[in-house]
Amino acid sequence: MAVQVFPTEEAVADGLAKYTSDLSKKFSDRRGAFTVVLSGGYLIHSIRKLLEPPFVDEVDWEKWHVFWVDERVVPKTHSDSNYKLAYDGFLSKVPIPPNHIYAINDSLSAEGAADDYEDCLKQLVKSGVLEVSAATGFPRFDLMLLGMGPDGHLASLFPKHHLLSEKERWVTFIKDSPKPPPVRITFTFL
């Protein structure tokens, strides 16, 4: 894919909606599913155009499977929760089946939630919703919508943090995030 430069944030939102809608159609038609990974921050605002015509009517929301690249270990109703941000700003406004929304379990410890989320991904590989990349051994998603923090972090993988060298686990936890809150769950691959 070529790099695209947009003159305004509004143009970014328009372009992202079209790109996402087109990918959704492509993978829904090809595989019967569209797997999307969300992050926190400003991203949910950037996909707002999917909630408007023509996109909201063109997308086959029943085929969407939604995941999080990371989550803060807080209740889903907490203002720091990436799930809450996505639910309030996007997911509550589209008819994605609730069993296709794979939120991180907020009733478990950080370690337990990471193990549980990795187990969930492995079950979805077994059921055919997700595929594993032959090159990396990690799950492959149709679209990963990621933001980058001002310090260069992606998900909850921070520059110079020891988690950057994790090669075995698909999902792990961090208890010393340099950005609050300090306890988080994160994919180890991007």
TrEMBL record:
One of its GO terms (molecular function) is 6-phosphogluconolactonase activity. Pfam families: Glucosamine_iso (PF01182). It comes from the Eukaryota. InterPro entries: 6-phosphogluconolactonase_DevB, 6PGL, Glc/Gal-6P_isomerase, NagB/RpiA_transferase-like. The keyword Transit peptide does not apply. Pathway: Carbohydrate degradation; pentose phosphate pathway; D-ribulose 5-phosphate from D-glucose 6-phosphate (oxidative stage): step 2/3. Keywords: Hydrolase. Hydrolysis of 6-phosphogluconolactone to 6-phosphogluconate. This is 6-phosphogluconolactonase.
